[in-house]
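Entry for the shared binder. Reason: the reviewer on the internal report wants the predicted structure included alongside the sequence.
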Amino acid sequence: MISIFVNEKRYEVPEGTTFYDIKNKVKDNADIIIINGHSVENEEDLYKEVNVGDHIVLIKRGEIPSSQELESLMMARHKPGVHEKVKKSVVGIAGLGGLGSTVAIALARVGIGKLVLVDFDVVEPSNLNRQQYYIRHIGMYKVDAIKEIIGEINPYVAIDTHLAKVDENNVGSLFKDVDILVEAFDTANAKRMLIESFHKCYPTRPIVSASGLAGYYSSNLIKVRKVTPYLYIVGDEEYSAEVGIGLMAPRVGIAANIQANTAIRIIMNQPDP
């Protein structure tokens, strides 16, 4: 007998069992089959024998899964072993504007274990051009609005929210539990304060910052630079918001998603290229 996982439940099956056998036994009406993170398009692949540790996900289009199954089905496109590491991780986000709200949603969709979200501001109409809020959120505190949104995307993410303005005196307490901190402030002074204060409290915990993401300049200018073993900067490090150069959803979103991806790469202990 060999051990496999079907919709994240462990099964013991005889050697020689095929993926087709598993489908017929567990969910014969499944029309989406994902094997080790890869969606099967060729029916011939179903007649291959399963191997020890294979992860198989069986989904029926349009069917609402039980709450017990939903989390595993959401993470079906991950490679085996990824979700276990991501689920154990805690990421803090300082600021929930265009960067922070987008990072939070990206990490929630990935299935991060816990988010620590800090902001003091409310949603206002000009935020809607680049931040992940809706008209119904205008006037709400951003920490409450983003928690509501994430709850509708992935209810399995633990969320700690703090309605607070971050300063050098509270950085240590606000982010004491995080493995990684994402800096998502608007001004250079606030960014500098956060980086210096956090590293003073936790010198070996990574921080993913951003600089240079304004306007509609080329996306190819946005990159990740590892400044120190524990500091990463995402952006072009040149085009900041100023008179005549505003902030727009595409470039802010690109930078934010690169910040989120950088956090995942740190979690997965991936070397820099």
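Summary line for the report: Residues 249-267 form the longest helix (19 residues).
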